[in-house]
Specification:
246 residues; alpha/beta; D-Maltodextrin-Binding Protein, domain 2; 2 domains; 5-stranded mixed β-sheet; 3-stranded parallel β-sheet
Length: 246
């Protein structure tokens, strides 16, 4: 009888610890900027997209949960540095300047920059020259490229208008307030499907996107890299790519 009671007690304790372990799964707050389809955007009031599915898949593989915060792109790294978020997943290009303040995972996607104009306009690639106004998302590589390669060299004599999101950039283009937008190629292609805009040029920049963590957070960085490796090997990465880049 005593043995039976001990076995029952052992089983109960085992179940308690098992459920406790499940309940103690770590949760990481992921910062994103949800105006960058197909990587992150809002649909029916929910943040969705490639990066969202990517982080969920990595979390499932590595045993942690994720929540998402929609933040202006140029505020993502400051939010990471202050500890308000744990990871940036926002189609963020790995650059030397950013690597001075954050650590990046292995690259998970490559892209170039594109130029879009209002559909059926007479604008072409020459829109980036002379007295034309272009818009960019603040703090993006498109912003850096337009500033350094066009404005500072006097190639573009018009204005560079900066916005918190590409949604605002594209809306201003459609409304005729700017002549063009410079943005990442996969996002430009998606906007060309969604809005009355055309892609008129591609700037080959060979950018690589990475997930960012605060400098020195090697434990989380290792989890992300291992998760990326696993979802590549088990086919989940291919499924996510097929879902968002048909």
């Amino acid at each position: 009888m005593k043995l039976k009671k001990l076995l029952i007690t052992f089983l109960v304790l085992t179940l308690v610890f098992a459920f406790s372990a499940v309940g103690l799964a770590e949760t990481y707050t992921v910062g994103t900027s949800a105006g960058f389809p197909p990587f992150e955007y809002v649909e029916d009031g929910e943040i969705v997209g490639f990066d969202i599915d990517l982080m969920k898949a990595i979390g499932e593989e590595m045993g942690f949960d994720v929540t998402f915060e929609d933040i202006a792109f140029d505020s993502l790294i400051p939010a990471l540095k202050t500890g308000n978020i744990d990871v940036v997943a926002a189609g963020m290009t790995i650059t030397e300047q950013r690597e001075e303040v954050v650590d990046f995972s292995n690259s998970y996607y490559s892209a170039d920059q594109s130029i879009i104009v209002k559909k059926d306009s007479d604008k072409d690639i020459s829109v980036i020259f002379g007295d034309n106004d272009i818009s960019v998302q603040t703090g993006t590589t498109g912003d850096m490229w337009a500033t350094e390669k066009l404005k500072e060299k006097g190639i573009l004599t018009g204005k560079i208008k900066r916005y918190d999101t590409f949604v605002l950039c594209v809306s201003d283009l459609v409304n005729g307030n700017v002549d063009a937008v410079v943005l990442d190629s996969p996002v430009a292609n998606r906007y060309a499907e969604m809005r009355p805009v055309d892609v008129v040029g591609i700037i080959v920049t060979g950018e690589n996107y990475g997930l960012a963590v605060n400098n020195g957070n090697t434990e989380l960085l290792d989890k992300l890299n291992e998760g990326l490796r696993r979802i590549r090997e088990n086919g989940k990465m291919a499924e996510i790519i097929d879902k968002h880049f048909k």
